[in-house]
Write a structure and sequence with these properties.
The chain is 37% helix and 17% strand. The protein is an alpha+beta fold. Strands 1, 2, 3, 4, 5, 6, 7, 8, 9 and 10 form a 10-stranded mixed sheet that branches. Helix 8 (226-237) crosses helix 9 (293-305). The protein starts with a helix and ends with a helix.
Length: 436
């Protein structure tokens, strides 16, 4: 009897909620009607995977895709055996003189290092036509993007290449100022940029830049005294460690976490005489660098050494103040080495892969630099005197807070209620500014 009563009560309860007079039924019917009205006149949008969007959103075509599906099918049918070769992730060690080039990165309509490299690789069937037109198909990545006029002794590029490649034949199709030293297999997921632990750059300049601004000297006759070199290295030590380098790049704010960079070493080597001019090479090693960072670091150091400002200016440049600082010329800046210490410790001794170290190639790398990179720096400096002309502009900089920044600060203090609007305007202005 008890069981029958329980079943009867459950049936009554279910019938109650199913009845049109119940609140739950009215709510469900109302929601269903609203949903049907919202779908009237709307076409069903096909589903797109977010992974497909993420994969394709950053791809940049180097020619317009105007082929029909029939043409694409015909192209696949006409693929040669070279096109069907299985390609595996490899690294390419190369050097180049950046003179007369608009940087490393490929840029349609401009003469770049990558453009000449891709033309030679396509000619030698290292890459397919699709990879030539769109580098992402070959998983191409460079360790560092050098700007206009900047050279490299040991640039590393990762990409998918055939197992057997002829480096000597490739170099014959490259200009003399670009050379591939070797190709080496790496792990499947290797990325030359993301897995780089540190980068070393060198900056070669005439020692006339060390002379006091009140001295009148000739570049060919000046020889830097030992005390100047000692003071130079003392100033360079002030940059070591983790600092905020927002003053040494463009479009970076002090509060931006990416403004902090770690400098491992910064040292000026002993001078040497090339022709009639004495030169010095400054070497800097850091985890990563921002746009113009090294050139501004060298520029401020030389300004202090020449007496245009005091050493405390260097420490102040790491604070929130936005200072007016000089930027040294691009001539003389060279990507010297790319470091993969963690990769070498993990995979360099596994018996399958080789470490990314190039001791056996050092004589060849040095010979290339001595023939194509550094002579170009010496000849261009003698011809254009870019450093001597730049030194004459150092007194135009204030080495203090810029006037426009002072005006902004004053305006914000007078109108504290408009802080949000001022910040938005400044952000938009920074985004519109374009710097090379």
């Amino acid at each position: 009897m008890i069981l029958l009563r329980s079943l009867k009560s459950q049936i009554v309860s279910r019938e109650f909620f199913r009845s049109k007079s119940s609140f739950a039924f009215a709510m469900s019917e109302g929601l269903k009607e609203i949903q049907e009205r919202s779908q009237v006149g709307k076409e069903k949008v096909p589903y797109k995977s977010r992974y497909d969007i993420r994969r394709n959103k950053n791809k940049r075509l180097w020619e317009d895709e105007t082929r029909t599906p029939e043409e694409i099918a015909a192209k696949k049918a006409s693929m040669t055996p070279e096109d069907k070769l299985k390609r595996k992730k490899s690294v390419l060690l190369m050097g180049y003189s950046g003179a007369n080039y608009f940087g490393m990165q490929r840029n349609p309509g401009q003469k770049t290092i990558e453009e000449d490299l891709f033309v030679a690789m396509f000619k030698n069937k290292w890459i397919t036509e699709e990879s030539f037109n769109q580098a992402q198909y070959a998983n191409f990545q460079r360790a560092a993007r050098t700007d206009k006029g900047v050279s490299a002794s040991r640039q590393i590029c990762s990409m998918k290449l055939p197992d057997e490649v002829d480096v000597e034949t490739l170099n014959k199709d490259l200009p003399d100022q670009i050379k591939v030293f070797c190709v080496r297999r790496v792990t499947k997921g290797f990325n030359s940029k993301e897995q780089c632990d540190a980068r070393t750059y060198s900056y070669t300049l005439p020692t006339i830049a060390f002379a006091d601004h009140s001295e009148t000297v000739e570049m060919e006759k000046y020889r830097a005294p030992a005390e100047k070199l000692e003071k130079m290295n003392e100033l360079l030590k002030m940059f070591l460690g983790t600092k905020n380098f927002h003053n040494f790049t463009s479009r970076k704010e002090f509060i931006d976490p990416s403004s902090k960079r770690y400098i491992i070493s910064f040292k000026c080597e002993a001078p040497r005489v090339e022709g009639e001019v004495e030169y010095c090479t400054i070497k800097i090693k850091g985890q990563s660098f921002m746009l113009h960072q090294i050139r501004k670091m060298v520029g401020l150091t030389l300004a202090v050494l020449r007496g245009h400002t005091d050493p405390p200016t260097i420490n102040r440049a790491f604070t929130a103040d936005r200072l007016d600082l000089p930027m040294a010329p691009g001539l003389g800046l060279v990507l010297d080495q790319v470091h993969y210490d963690r990769y070498n410790r993990r995979y360099g001794v596994d018996g399958i892969h080789k470490s990314l170290e190039w001791d056996e190639l050092e004589p060849e790398i040095k010979a290339f630099g001595d023939k194509f990179i550094y002579p170009t720096i010496y000849e261009t400096e003698l011809k254009d005197k870019s450093m001597a002309l730049w030194l004459e502009t150092l007194h135009y900089h204030s080495y203090t807070v810029r006037p426009e920044d002072l005006e902004k600060s004053a305006a914000q203090e007078k109108e504290p209620t408009d802080d949000v609007e001022v910040k938005v305007e400044n952000t938009l202005k920074d985004e519109d500014d374009k710097d090379n």
